[in-house]
Design a protein that fits this description.
alpha+beta; 8 helices; about 270 residues; five-stranded mixed beta sheet; Fructose-1,6-Bisphosphatase, Chain A, domain 1; single chain; D-Maltodextrin-Binding Protein, domain 2; seven-stranded mixed beta sheet
């Protein structure tokens, strides 16, 4: 690792992510057992085995630390030392042989993000951030896009599994963005990587109307360290104890993006302003 980062947990975190990514590499484009958690919401044996490999390394090094993970660990989100794991962000992509998925691992101390790692096992793209030490992609420090108008950027979005009103609201918001003359829109299906790509300046905005903490725990630190900003769709800090909406931007576009995103979010959530 070329980036000049220092953190007491960094070595263990890198080892854990390496183990998780190796599990995914070994199982990618091979037949894996799939279970359904809900409509278009799947878990594979690769998710479970990656999570097991990551948790084993963290538990061995820090047996008293709390862990929240997508599949099987739900310790207290207000623990002093907390690891938040998505062992396979982009399960649908993985299942269909699309090489865009990631392991995501974040470490929080007293509710504040200190360390985040996101890694795509196929491309070997590695995104590492440490609080107040920058955001680094494959050893190169990253900064958000400097654009000040929506008409100058590409945006990204995610769709939650809901195929009803949430999907419709997302589509309506995309239409509103296009009416702001954005350069285009991309939807790749892995929120951790989307957040990192805002941090790397590829997108000016990313939004989704429902995500879980393991989806954004590492990516929001990478974005922040690159000069970006992430809030929920009402402008509040992202929670660690429950699902949330998200608006992630290069900071300069945050208010403009919220003007597009928030109206449909408020209708969707039953929010009544004033």
């Amino acid at each position: 690792m070329n980036q000049p980062l220092s953190h007491p947990m960094l070595s263990i975190a890198m080892d854990a992510v390496a183990k998780g990514t190796q599990v995914l590499r070994d199982r990618y484009q091979k037949t894996v057992r799939v279970e359904t958690k809900g409509l278009a919401n799947f878990v594979t044996e690769a998710d479970l085995d990656s999570e097991k490999a990551i948790v084993e390394i963290i538990r061995e090094a820090y047996p008293d630390h709390a862990i929240i993970s997508e599949e099987s660990h739900s310790d207290r989100a207000d623990a002093a030392d907390l690891w938040i794991i998505d062992p396979l962000d982009g399960t649908s992509n993985f299942m269909h042989g699309i090489p865009h998925f990631a392991v995501s691992l974040g470490y929080y101390h007293d509710g504040k993000p200190e360390l985040g790692i996101v890694c795509n096992p196929v491309s070997n793209d590695l995104y590492v951030s440490v609080f107040e030490q920058g955001a680094w992609h494959n050893g190169v420090r990253q900064q958000v896009d400097p654009s000040e108008n929506l008409s100058e950027v590409m945006i990204a979005c995610g769709f939650y599994y809901d195929r009803g009103q949430m999907m419709q609201s997302t589509l309506e918001t995309l239409g509103d963005f296009f009416r702001c003359n954005i350069h285009g829109m991309r939807r790749f299906g892995a929120a951790a990587l989307d957040l990192c790509n805002v941090g790397c300046g590829h997108y000016g905005v990313f939004f989704e109307y429902k995500l879980h903490p393991w989806d954004y725990a590492a990516g929001q630190l990478f974005l922040s360290e690159a000069g970006g900003r992430a809030t929920d769709c009402n402008g509040n800090s992202l929670p660690l104890h429950c699902a949330s909406s998200i608006c992630a931007t290069n900071t300069k576009l945050h208010d403009q993006a919220m003007q597009v995103i928030t109206p449909n979010w408020r209708k969707l959530s039953g929010y009544v302003s004033g």
